[in-house]
Every structure is written in structure tokens, then in C-alpha cells.
Amino acid sequence: MNNFGNKTLAILYSQAKREYFPTEEQYISEAEVFERAKIVAVYFEKVGFEVILLPGDSSLPKKLQKVRPQLVLNLVDSVRGQEHLAAIIPAQLDLFNIPYTGTGMLGLAINSNKFLTKKLLEQTGVPLPRYQLFSSLLDILDVQLKFPLISKLNEIHGSVAIDQDSVSDNELHLRERLKKLFRIYRQPVLVEEFIVGKELTAYLLEGMSKKIYIGEKKFNEAATKYKIATFDAVWRDIDSYDYVRSSGNGILENYVRTAFDILKMDDYGKFDVRQDESGRYYFIDCNANPAFGPIETDCAISHVLKMYDINFDEIIRRLILNASKDEPNLMMT
């Protein structure tokens, strides 16, 4: 890898304060990024970057103008606790003409609305479970939806509010679940058919080309009735599932490329997919700028790519290579 001496990299992270979030869960999903950013910084320093960490808050514009980094690693997932405001960050970087890694303003804006994401995927033929957006308890359940159904927050990622109670076997349970989510989070709820079968995670990583890496989640035997990546499984009980290398036989890979493009993602993206007993795929979640970090931060991207003999140094190399397509001076020693 080139030596990037005398070049400054700014790592931007979410400024998470407990008062920004309605629940401890959502706060946990955002607050960890600062410690992760410090670990990631060491990897960039090893290749010669001078690294500075900056919070993604109202002070950012002045700090960017003062530092004028040659490259920004954007790890901001929310601003003042709102995921849809994360799109402000790449907008500022574009305004100041500062190159950065990850998805731009439009892609992050799309990413903050799961219903909009599904509509775009639907238009391009990417397979989805049947779904419905609930904006109030008065909404009538679509008769085409078949139980079991899983309910998810429309505007929050990170498996927040996902637990075994998220899956409903009847409408009475679903209504109670919706009532709770509306009361706490005050946002629409996406309800979709729960697909029994395997759960796959696919990463698309750009470099000179778009490469796709797939891992199947293998849940431990203690997993309860519905094997899903709950909040506790993702953030607390790291032994609840592991990854094994998998393949989409070219079919899933093509869907992932289509999804990546239509959702206006850049550099890297994560796609969660269920596969039923007949082998059919269903996209259940898409993440622009998913959690980014080396294996010691327990980020899924490093666990999945490790199965393909790709370490974090190589991931960084590809990100810089992709950024250098428009900024060739980055690759100068």
C-alpha cells in the first residue's frame, strides 16, 4: 500500500448523547462508534495518514475548513439522534469539495427510509417479502399479508427494537406491538412477512470492480422459535450466531449489484437477505455505510470478508483506491 505521509484523514463519528435517543438500545447502537473510530484510526496511521477524529455535529463545517483533510472516512450514522440527518454530512463534504468514503447525500437519505428503499427495490425486480407501512393504529392490515409478520422501525437501523417479540403470529399480537413502537419511537412501522429459512448477509465492496461476499448466519442451538438477528444478538450476546461462507450462485450476487446501484450506494454496502426452503431470496434490509471496523471491533464486514481471506488492511486499500478514482493525488507518495 502507498505511504500517505503528509496527508490528513479525518474520521467523522456520530456525536451520541443519551438525551438524543428515546431508548438505551438506540443510544448503545450509536455511542459505540467513537471507540471504534479510534481503533480504525490506527490502521490508517500505519499507512502514513495523519488522522484526526471529528464529531458530526454543528461544529463540523468550521473544523473541516480549518483542517482541510485530503480524505474523510465518514462513520456518522445520525445527527442529534436522527438517522435521516446523517445525509447532511456528505452534503457538507461535497460543498467543500473534500473527497470521502462511503455513500453520498442522496443514498444516505434513501437509506434512512426503509419503505422508500423497498419501493425502489420493488421497481427493479429485487425480491422482497410482502410488506405494509403502518402510520397509525387505525391502518387496516392488508389481507394479502400472511402471518407470521415481523415489525420494524421505518427510520432506524442497527436492529433497534428487534427481539423475539417482533414476530407476530396473529393480528392481536401485532396491534400490541405496533402500539408499543408508536408510543416509544413516534415513527411509522414497517410490517413484512417473516420468511422462515436461512439468513444471509451480503457485502458489496468497490475497488477496481464491484465484488460481493456472502455469509450465512448460523444461530446457536439456544435460539428460540424464530431465528433472527435481535438487538441483543447483535450488540450484547456475540456468541448467539456466527458466519459461514456462502454463495448466491450468481443469482443473489446480481440482485445485490442491482440494489447497490438503485439505492445510490458508494464504496461498500450491506444487504440482509432471507432464503426460504425453496431457495428463493428475499431482501429484508439494506445498509449504506454499515458499521466499519477491523475484526477486533466485531464488525460484520470484517467477519464476512475474513472468510474470503481479506483483512482490514485490504478493505482500507480498496476504499482508498476507489476514492482515488476522482482524486488521483491521494495515491501519490
Automatic annotation (TrEMBL):
This is ATP-grasp domain-containing protein. Belongs to the D-alanine--D-alanine ligase family. PANTHER family: D-ALANINE--D-ALANINE LIGASE, D-ALANINE--D-ALANINE LIGASE B. Keywords: ATP-binding, Ligase, Nucleotide-binding. It comes from the Bacteria. It holds the Pfam family Dala_Dala_lig_C. Residues 118-321 form the ATP-grasp domain. It comes from Candidatus Kuenenbacteria bacterium CG1_02_38_13. One of its GO terms (molecular function) is D-alanine-D-alanine ligase activity. Gene3D superfamilies: 3.40.50.20, ATP-grasp fold, B domain.
